[in-house]
Design a protein that fits this description.
The chain has 742 residues and is an alpha+beta fold. It has 24 helices and eleven strands.
């Protein structure tokens, strides 16, 4: 592989006009496609195989003309101090608001609180329920605006009015924080390369890759039902790996220049060595993201595949566009160790054979090699301590109760909790399918009676049958809030009762609604975590055996990743569930951890962790294959790779930390979790535990059974095939023909 990529790098360097034209054309084509494609909202959400989804599907069949997953809103009214909502003046305001809410093409139904009894016992709080024909993700902006305006008119008349429900769901805005992350990345790159131009190359190419990926997603959004969350994830991951991969190639190019090689040869060698590491690092990320399809949640699968496509684009750009741009830059990109004149340059790079002060990476690796046991124990114990809170992990999905208190959704949630009880914000919808029953009405009554006898039940509404009389819905109000384990126990208790009812009446009982859907989704994600982990780690383990031609190095990489991800989950639990440092992080409400968080962190962090593993350890493997002792190879790997890996990790932490400032609790949690995970993995696992383990293993680290060594293809990631290039370089005119033959 190294030889092929070497030739590809030289070809891209020489034919830079052609390569640049191709990428500009692709960016233009994707942009035109995105601009001309029909607009698409967020993708519809479904969880195949769960009871709540089966109930939704049944409702659509048995209650034609209604949308089971249609958006809902609750407009909550509170009377001024000392007044009641039943007062004539307040009644008039509410009825006027209800009339305004009914005026809309997407509105299916608006309940009058005085007709439905939606007034609290003390008379201070009332609410009007609004149901829409489409889901919250599909509502038009004009419909949302009408909802807000109706609430504002009622406020102007003297009432306290807040709006809850999923009708106000909108994609969180994080553009400003992303800009901050890119700015920090630019500063780190300038410090790393000592050159504005060299620092700009990874940023420019990463943005081009993200532009192509996100524009392609936008162009296909309507046809493939892709939503804004898909493009958000793709841009986050694409930006991260795009900067990383370009950073690796440019850094190796500058190192090759410092060795005295010509620029075209240096570009080829950078593509052949660092480029090989980029290919395999990219493959691990793609495996992790595509592997999300194991969960069998369509939205998650689409997000993973779209992000994987953006990663593949980042790999191709690093291998082709970076060498082409290096050709355009010419002598403005200086050898490693030199700075541009603008940044105080002028001094020449120190030749590696000349005496000089070792860099920080060399000094640190030498220290670890001398004291591997102490460093290993300290690293493992530290990460183990950080992982302790993960044992108390509670999973759930966010609701309005997890919103900041500054939002109208959270204030509506609190008003309803005060007026009607905490469980009122998470009603359960029980669907009774009595099509196979001889006495449907009796079955409906029996279900209601059985549910009333359960613990944690406040209210059970009478059954509401469909026109055929074979299916009915029953609304159950729990005592506890939606995200509590008590409410989860109630859902399971109703389902357990349903089994007995079916035996007695032949009627099937299904529990659904937002709360039940959240519980089922959390359970499905939890059940899929181990198979997903086994698939991703297993495939990557096989891939790393091919890269490193070793059994113990990939095993160590996988175990180190598990340590870092468990420590990161522990940190997430400590902050978002226990409330440690919650004020500093802007966490206003603690509660269960988002159910998607563990599996999402496993996928994304594993891919990024393997980036650092592949780039750092391939340098060590390269040195070992070229004749260095195992301990010296560790030091050599850090000498050439530690600075780049450190810069890449700092950039990733900056990008992910930018999302901590989001007002959306889910985005805040993801940003914090990924930033902490990258910190643990890059600076403790890869920078401390990995060299310590390799120093202890010595030659055993690179052991591979002879039969397996013969069976595995030689991908030559360390560039062994390039050793003779200095003595026997191909003539420039032969490069194109060699590439074709390769």
């Amino acid at each position: 592989m190294a030889t092929f990529l070497y030739k590809l790098g030289r070809l891209a360097f020489r034919r830079r006009h052609f390569v640049a034209l191709i990428w500009v054309a692709l960016l233009t084509l994707a942009g035109v496609g995105a601009a001309s494609a029909p607009a698409a909202g967020n993708s519809s959400f479904s969880v195949p195989g769960t009871e709540s989804q089966k109930a939704f599907d049944l409702l659509e069949q048995r209650f034609p003309g209604t949308t089971a997953d249609g958006a809902t809103a609750r407009v909550v009214f509170k009377a001024p101090s000392g007044e009641k909502m039943t007062a004539a003046a307040n009644k008039k305001i509410v009825k006027k608001t209800v009339a305004e809410l009914k005026d809309g093409s997407e509105v299916a139904l608006v309940d009058d609180p005085y007709k439905t009894g939606a007034v609290s016992k003390d008379g201070t709080v009332a609410y009007a329920s609004v149901r829409y024909k489409v889901s919250g993700m599909e509502l038009k902006d004009s419909t949302r605006d009408a909802l807000k305006e109706a609430a504002q008119d009622a406020r102007g008349a003297g009432l306290t009015v807040e709006v809850g429900g999923d009708a106000l769901t909108a994609a969180p805005e994080t553009g400003a924080t992303e800009v901050i992350g890119i700015a920090i990345a630019a500063v780190v790159l300038v410090i790393t390369f000592g050159s504005l131009l060299a620092a700009g190359l990874p940023l420019v190419t990463a943005l081009i890759g993200v532009g192509i990926g996100v524009s392609t997603i936008a162009a296909l959004a309507s046809a493939l039902d892709l939503g804004t969350t898909t493009s958000t994830l793709a841009s986050m991951i694409g930006l991260a790996v795009g900067i990383d991969y370009a950073l690796f190639i440019v850094s190796r190019y500058r190192a090759e220049l410092a060795e005295g090689r010509e620029r075209e040869e240096a570009a080829g060698r950078a593509a052949g060595t660092a480029g090989s590491a980029v290919v395999f690092a990219g493959l691990t990320v793609v495996i992790a993201l595509v592997g999300l399809s194991v969960v069998n949640i369509p939205m998650l699968t689409k997000m993973g595949v779209a992000a994987a496509g953006t990663v593949a684009i980042a790999v191709l750009i690093a291998l082709t566009l970076i060498p082409a741009l290096l050709g355009y830059a010419g002598r403005k990109v200086r050898p490693a160790g030199e700075k541009s004149k603008l940044l105080g340059g002028g001094r020449k790079a120190k030749h590696p054979h000349k005496a000089g002060r070792p860099n920080m990476g060399t000094r640190w690796a030498s220290f670890v090699v001398r004291r591997p046991v102490a460093v290993l124990l300290l690293g493992v114990v530290g990460l183990g301590a950080a992982a302790v809170p993960a044992a108390s992990l509670e999973l759930g999905l966010p609701d309005d109760g997890s919103q900041p208190t500054s939002t109208t959704q959270r204030r509506a949630y609190d008003l309803l909790s005060d007026g009607f009880g905490p469980g009122f914000n998470g009603p359960l919808m029980v669907v009774v399918d009595a099509k196979g029953s001889d006495h449907p009405k009796t079955a409906f009554k029996e279900v209601g009676k059985e549910i009333k006898g359960l613990k944690d039940v406040v209210t059970v509404t009478p059954a509401a049958p469909n026109e055929a009389g074979d299916t009915a819905t029953i609304t159950v109000i729990p005592k506890s809030k939606p995200s509590s384990t008590t409410t989860e126990d109630l859902v399971h208790a109703i389902r357990d009762k349903g089994a007995d009812i079916k035996a007695d009446t032949d009627a099937q009982v299904l529990v659904t609604g937002t709360t039940a859907m959240n519980i089922d989704t959390s359970q499905k994600l939890n059940d899929a975590l181990v198979p997903y982990l086994a698939l991703v780690v297993g495939l990557a383990f096989l891939l790393l055996i091919l890269v490193f031609r070793s059994i113990l190095v990939p095993l160590k990489a996988a175990l180190g990743f598990l340590l870092s991800v468990m420590a990161a989950l522990g940190a997430v639990v400590a902050v978002f569930q226990w409330g440690w440092l919650s004020g500093l992080m802007g966490v206003e409400e603690t509660g269960p951890i988002m159910s998607m968080m563990p599996i999402f962190m496993v996928g994304v962090v594993f891919g990024l962790a393997m980036d650092y593993e592949v780039f750092l350890v391939t340098r060590m493997r390269e040195a070992y294959v070229h004749g260095e002792k195992p301990s010296q190879a560790v030091v050599t790997g850090f000498k050439h790779g530690a600075r780049v890996v450190t810069a890449a990790a700092v950039i990733m932490i900056a990008v992910f930390s930018g999302f901590i400032g989001s007002s959306e609790s889910m985005i805040k949690m993801i940003g914090f979790g990924l930033a902490v995970a990258v910190f643990f993995d890059a600076f403790i696992v890869r920078m401390a535990i990995v060299p310590a383990v390799l120093a202890l293993l010595g030659k055993k680290a690179w052991w591979l059974p002879k039969w397996l060594d013969r069976a595995l293809p030689n991908v030559d990631v360390e560039g062994e095939g390039l050793r003779t290039r200095d003595e026997d370089r191909p003539r420039d005119g032969d490069v194109d023909r060699e590439l074709v033959r390769a």
